[in-house]
Amino acid sequence: MHTMWKGTISFGLVNIPVKMHAATENKDIKLRQLHKDCQSPIKYERTCPACDREVKNDEIVKAYEYAKDKFVVLDEDDLDALKKEQGDKAVEIVDFVKLEEIDPIYFEKSYFLSPNEGGGKAYGLLRSALNDTGKIGIAKMIIRSKEQLAVIRVYENTLIVETIHFPDEVRQVKDVPNVPEASKTAKEELDTAKMLIEQLTTTFDPEKYTDDYRTALLELIEAKKNNEEVVVGESKPKPDNVTNLMDALQESLDKAKKNKPKPKPAKPKTASSKKKVAK
Description:
Elements: E1 5-11, E2 14-22, E3 47-48, E4 53-54, E5 62-67, E6 70-74, H1 76-87, E7 91-97, E8 107-115, H2 120-133, E9 136-143, E10 146-155, E11 158-164, H3 187-200, H4 212-225, H5 245-259, H6 271-274
Parallel strand pairs: 1-7
Antiparallel strand pairs: 1-2, 2-8, 3-4, 5-6, 7-9, 8-11, 9-10, 10-11
Helix pairs in contact: 3-5
């Protein structure tokens, strides 16, 4: 597993040398754009509209647009010095909180942490302390030139860092358009909706969920690569246009009851299990 960052995690006077590894991977299928006539990949060039020519990398500088067409040019040396100053800081856990206190909207990306040389004992100490207290750590760190707020917690016996958004990065819900105000809900509709939720409730099993589109796209690519005949599957039937909310709820409930797997019958007790332990 590729090491993407090395540093230390500190809480109090305890320092833990760690390595960080990406915990997830993007499995989107990337499609290239080709010229239809000759099947050549399309190139994208960086051009300057004022000079009307292609611009090389060493001619490009970074800048901040503080007003329309007004820029502050940022020197690369200053940016590098700022990155080093921030990047040299340890990941300091500043608070410990309960995981359920953080709304999922704040979570961004996950990284595994492994102990670096000499960090095994302190790593195990933090892991045990987090497990026993049921708490998670809130820390700040620099990842790819950006300061991140992060959560440090235990995931299947491994410490994991999950970057979370700063509060000003989460948009205000009051700005969401067309959200209905609180309205009185008919008791019959609410009761039926609760029954439907109950019928569809199960234990979360991540292996149950698959990316059907990605699988179908890979099969299509493989078939075309082998010059095989492409058979497009039948599209799923569209749901009926039920305009009455109660009718839609009841129809959904009936379908859920019909499709819900029946519980497996309990295994008969063996003769040995029926024996009582003598006192």
